[in-house]
């Protein structure tokens, strides 16, 4: 694979969304179940809101998904507990290999392109001290819809000043990889969990286990 720039999904790819499990412990004996349902509903709400043309930013969608997940699991956190669980999103941990891999890839313009709101993305990037590794932090908020809408992916080539076919779009989310491939990027699937390929008729150009695998595949 040859690319002249990289775009990274944020949640699940650079940052571990399940780092919220610790915060969830304060409100449930089964924080893994809360974390999994919360993430699933969060993504569903982005797709549903995009289809309905009723955009709300990712913070708001994430709050709504948490409220639903708590209701479904029969949990009744106080307002303060709910806020603490939400705030965990601002301090998610980067996966352990991310910093070193971005360092190895430093000669390529690299940006985040994420559903996250600008405030959420800036907070989590700063929390992990990764700002100097990134050319730009791009949020769907600029076009007020969510992935996999093509208008979102179009933000990347416009900001990097590169043709879409020469950009590698890197995501751990199979559906996001499919969206990126459909748009015309070279699609890289960071398949951390050994998940099955989505049946969307789109195959990634490269599959790696983590970002160290990406750096190696790009000869860095
Ligand atoms: C993002 C979600 C899809 O960062 O993980 O855009």
Strand runs, count: 6
Spans of at least 5 consecutive residues whose pLDDT stays below 50 are none
Give the name of the CATH architecture of the largest domain.
Answer: 3-Layer(aba) Sandwich
- Helix-strand string: EHHHHHEHEHHEHEEH
Based on CA inertia axes, which overall geometry fits?
Answer: globular
Helical stretch tally:
10
Q: Report the CATH C-level class of the largest domain.
A: Alpha Beta
User: How many domain regions?
Assistant: 2
Biggest sheet: strands side by side, in what order? 3-2-1-4-5-6
What's the end-to-end separation, in Å? 12 Å
For this structure, the CATH topology of the largest domain is Rossmann fold
Bin the helical content. Answer: 40-55%
CATH homologous superfamily assignment of the largest domain:
HAD superfamily/HAD-like
| Rounded mean pLDDT score | 97
* Unique bound compounds: lactic acid
**SS-based class:** alpha/beta
Write down the Rg: 17 Å
* Main beta sheet: 6 strands, parallel
The proportion of strand residues reads 5-15%
Short overview:
This protein has 220 residues and is of the alpha/beta class. 43% of the residues lie in helices and 12% in strands. It folds into two domains: 5-16 and 93-217, HAD superfamily/HAD-like (Rossmann fold, 3-Layer(aba) Sandwich), CATH 3.40.50; 17-90, DNA polymerase, domain 1.
